[in-house]
Amino acid sequence: MSLEQQMKSGLLYREYGHKDEKDIAYEKVIERQRKHGKELTFAYNQTNPSDYGRKRELLQQILGSMGDEVWIESPVNFSYGCNTHVGNYFYANYGLVVVDDVDVFIGDYVMCGPNVSICVTGHPVYGEYRRDGTQFSLPVHIGNDVWIGANVVIMPGVTIGNNVVIGAGSVVTKDIPDNVVAFRTPCRVARQITDEDKEYFRKGVPVNKDWRE
């Protein structure tokens, strides 16, 4: 199986050291992608935060795809950038880290608190296998209307559903269904999101009717 196939199949692979000409050529492709993405991200992080036009222009070059009204606070770091796909109305606070050796899909109206890490890549448990950098990568999917709290870590292969809140400090190791609040380490469902949440924005505090004014 080729390096590209290993990467995209969730199997163990190395990013370098291959002998097959096809794999050597693909090593060079992903090396260029990583370098290009990191250089653009460096430029993004050094750009004045009031220069919205330049910030968006750089994000369009960094990301694989992006929707409207996307804002990511600096600093941000991507492994590649080109493997991350962001929907409309996305906001990420300071310190977002996206390890996107393979695809990361983020839906519409997603918010990330400070220091969120999205990681598609892991390493084998048996130590000898890690000595030459062997790893595996599994895509991450995040649905629409998701709020990810500060210092959350999302692990390889996780799918987070629509209308979900992930509590601060959680480590998300398994899929999270739609319409729930989930937190802890490892992250698990705490409760359903219900009609009561339309009336109270936090426990015992009703939604003020002029909140849109």
UniProtKB/TrEMBL annotation:
Main EC class the enzyme belongs to: transferase
Entry keyword Lipid biosynthesis: no
Residue span, Maltose/galactoside acetyltransferase domain: 4-68
InterPro entries: Hexapep (IPR001451), Hexapep_transf_CS (IPR018357), LacA-like (IPR039369), Mac_dom (IPR024688), Trimer_LpxA-like_sf (IPR011004)
SUPFAM superfamilies assigned to the protein according to its UniProt record, in alphabetical order: Trimeric LpxA-like enzymes
Entry's EC annotation: 2.3.1.-
Keyword Repeat: yes
UniProt keywords, alphabetically: Acyltransferase, Repeat, Transferase
Family: Belongs to the transferase hexapeptide repeat family.
Record protein name field: Acetyltransferase
Organism whose genome encodes this protein: Blautia celeris
Organism lineage: Bacteria, Bacillati, Bacillota, Clostridia, Lachnospirales
